[in-house]
């Protein structure tokens, strides 16, 4: 993460602008930041749900193999 921060300092952009791939105007910065935060939260929830599914599948497969 510190590499990204240093790169953003050199480019004189924020981390949010870096990950969004665009420079924000002062007028749009709060709106775009909020939208990017919401997207990030949704993606994190999706990844968490996928991980839960994989863990459940792995455990159930191992339990059924132990029983047989």
Task: Give a structural overview.
This protein has 68 residues and is mainly α. It has one domain. 81% of the residues lie in helices and 0% in strands. It is built from 3 helices and no strands. It is elongated and about 65 Å long.
Summary keywords:
81% helix; mainly alpha; single chain; elongated; 68 residues
**Sheet having the most strands:** none
The count of helical stretches stands at 3
| Rough outline | elongated
Helix content: over 70%
Chart the SSEs and their pairings.
Blueprint: H1 2-11, H2 15-20, H3 29-67
Offer a quick outline of the entry:
With 68 residues, the chain is mainly alpha-helical. It has helices at residues 2-11, 15-20, 29-67. The protein has one domain (2-67).
């Amino acid at each position: 993460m510190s590499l990204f921060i240093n790169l953003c300092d050199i480019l004189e952009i924020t981390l949010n602008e870096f990950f969004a791939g665009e420079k924000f105007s002062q007028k749009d910065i709060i709106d775009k930041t909020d939208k990017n935060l919401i997207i990030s939260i949704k993606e994190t929830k999706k990844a968490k749900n996928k991980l839960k599914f994989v863990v459940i599948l792995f455990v159930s497969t191992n339990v059924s193999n132990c029983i047989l």
